[in-house]
Design brief:
The chain is mostly helical. The strands form 4 sheets. A two-stranded antiparallel sheet has the order 1-4. The longest helix is centred in the middle third of the chain and has 54 residues. It is globular and about 110 Å long.
């Protein structure tokens, strides 16, 4: 016991020298790592037994604290008795105040709680005891934190509340981690009530909500927006301005194709006859020019195509298409139309190759003549093969359309609906540039001409085979085909322009380029010229009209038959030449007028 008292006096002296306990009564605890206690651990076994007995008899004392926080002064001084030894826990429970602490500190420390601290307590608070570090005479004290839980009750405001016991986590460096305080919970109704712009109708009655909806303006305001002048112009462009310009451009393109077709049937034969006449008249061979070689190549292609088509039995193909039930007529027509477009894209390149070889053959030196002749022959053979394939495709397409018109089960209507709406579906909902729309309009012009050739084929077939009154039915069906094609083209281009933000003025620019092409004026966009090869349609038309002429020839001896053939041929040639002159001069006049008008009004193209 003497050693133990000496150890206590020594600890008190160390604390006194550090100045941590000057005038106040101190509480100090000795840990199990105290060198003094460890030295006398074996000598104090009887004392330890007494302490254990006293520990069992230890009771907790309660001290009452006045309810008024202003009169409450709490100071805790713990005597050096057996209840505070060996790291035991002691607590003071009062009405409204509870202290709990754990002790493992070597160095003594004091804690004093004064009145102002309790005045600030609302709910649950935590006080931390600062560690006291001291060292003297080779004794090193370890620092640890002692946490005090203070639970204060406010009987006047909230009544008696049970406080939960929680301890604060200590880090290895001895610093206590501050406890995070929870934010105030979000009260949605209170927040919406405090909102000065509270416009929601969560608390409104149905009648009040309906009356507010009645007075809030446009009833579709939640799903639509107010338009502006630009939107209005866009609507009127789609409905009125663009259809007019689009149809005008397609019609002019149709007449350009028709003029090229008539040139093939009138100008080209005339030039070939004049070349042969000059050759026979001069009786000496002269190298032909590039234009003459080109005309000769086109005449060869057309002659081969007509000869092969004459060997084709149209009635057999007609019954094959009509009698099969596996594939519908509109499916056959759509497949043939796809191949037709492929040939339209490929055959111009083949013909350009032929014309290039003709140019090289006309201007080559004599030593390279053999090479250019073989090259021209190869290109000529390729052009003949491509044109014949295209001619058969167009003939099959014309026979399919004739089958639909003659049928009495609404096959024509099914064909028009499926074909035209498939065209809308495949074109409208795609992204197009201005150049692509330019090419698409030209394709529509060529398609319009091909439909005219098909209608002529149907007319010829009716002349040859129809019985009874057929002209009215044919006229109504032909008109239905043209009107449907025109409406579909207008709808297609109107919505393509709408979705791709193309102004109607672009179609006027396309028409200006087409007029310059008609006048043979070179433009910067020469690659966007209308390209049409009339060889395949010409072969089909000649193949169809030849039986009609043959059926009208009188039954007479051969000399008279040849005479009537020449007469019919001359009459046809004069009519076609007159039509060629009329259409050609009309296109030239219109093109000159339109180009001059555009040059005068460069910034306002075709506002009509």
């Amino acid at each position: 016991m003497a050693l133990k008292s000496t150890g206590r006096n020594l600890s008190f002296d160390i604390l006194s020298r550090n100045g941590s306990l000057d005038e106040e009564e101190a509480i100090f605890y000795r840990s199990n790592s105290d060198p003094i206690q460890s030295n006398h651990h074996n000598n104090d076994k009887p004392a330890r037994r007494k302490r254990k007995k006293k520990k069992k008899n230890t009771t907790t004392t309660h001290s009452s604290i006045p309810e008024s926080p202003t009169n409450a002064t709490v100071s805790n001084s713990f005597p050096h008795n057996s209840s505070s030894k060996n790291g035991e826990t002691s607590g003071i429970n009062g009405s409204g105040l509870e202290f709990s602490y754990s002790q493992t500190v070597l160095c003594p420390a004091t804690t004093e709680v004064s009145d102002p601290e309790f005045q600030k307590l609302r709910g649950t608070a935590e006080l931390r005891q600062r560690p006291v570090n001291g060292s003297a005479g080779g004794v090193v004290g370890e620092t640890q934190t002692t946490s005090f839980r203070i639970e204060a009750e406010d009987k006047e405001d909230s009544g008696v509340e049970a406080g939960s016991v929680s301890k604060q986590r200590s880090e290895p460096n001895g610093n206590a981690v501050p406890k995070l305080q929870t934010a105030e919970s979000l009260d949605w109704k209170r927040l919406m009530a405090e909102d000065p712009n509270y416009l929601f109708s969560v608390d409104k009655s149905p009648v009040k909500y309906f009356m507010e909806e009645m007075s809030n303006g446009n009833s579709l305001r939640s799903t639509t927006t107010l338009g502006n002048e630009k939107e209005r112009e866009r609507v009127y462009d789609t409905i009125f301005r663009l259809p007019w310009r689009c149809e005008l451009l397609i019609d002019v393109g149709f007449f350009v194709c028709f003029d090229s077709f008539l040139s093939l049937l009138t100008i080209m034969p005339t030039r070939i006859v004049m070349t042969l006449w000059r050759l026979l008249h001069s009786r000496q061979f002269k190298r032909p020019s590039a234009a003459e070689l080109s005309d000769f190549g086109c005449f060869t292609i057309m002659a081969c195509g007509v000869t092969l088509l004459e060997q084709t039995d149209i009635s057999l193909i007609y019954h094959m298409i009509r009698g099969q039930g596996t594939i519908k007529l509109y499916v056959v027509y759509n497949v043939l139309e796809i191949f037709d477009k492929l040939c339209q894209s490929f055959n111009p390149d083949v013909l350009q190759t032929l014309f290039n070889s003709a140019e090289g053959l006309a201007s080559c030196p004599p030593e390279n003549m053999r090479f250019w002749i073989w090259r021209f022959i190869c290109d000529q053979a390729l052009a003949v093969a491509a044109s014949i394939i295209h001619s058969f495709i167009l003939l099959a397409q014309a026979i399919t359309l004739s089958t639909c018109i003659v049928a009495h089960n609404n096959a024509l209507l099914a064909l028009l609906v499926s074909n035209n709406f498939a065209e809308i579906k495949s074109n409208v909902f795609k992204r197009y540039s201005k150049d692509n729309i330019h090419s698409l309009v030209y394709f529509d012009s060529v398609e319009r001409f091909h439909i005219s050739a098909f209608v002529l084929f149907v007319l010829a077939q009716n002349i040859l085979e129809a019985e009874g009154p057929w002209f009215e039915s044919f006229l109504s069906n032909a008109l239905l085909v043209y009107v449907c094609e025109m409406i579909i083209d207008i709808i297609k281009h109107s919505f393509i322009a709408k979705f791709n933000d193309i102004k109607p003025i672009a179609y006027s620019e396309f028409l200006e380029d087409l007029c310059k092409q008609t006048l043979n004026i070179q433009t910067e966009a020469s690659k966007k010229n209308l390209t049409f090869i009339p060889l395949a349609p010409a072969c089909v038309v000649i193949r169809v009209l030849t039986p009609v002429y043959a059926a009208r020839l009188p039954y007479s001896p051969l000399p008279w038959k040849l005479f009537w053939i020449l007469v019919l041929f001359a009459m046809t040639y004069v009519m076609l030449t007159s039509l060629k002159v009329l259409i050609g001069m009309g296109l030239q006049k219109h093109a000159s007028w339109y180009v001059n008008r555009c040059s005068r009004r460069k910034h306002h193209l075709h506002y009509d």
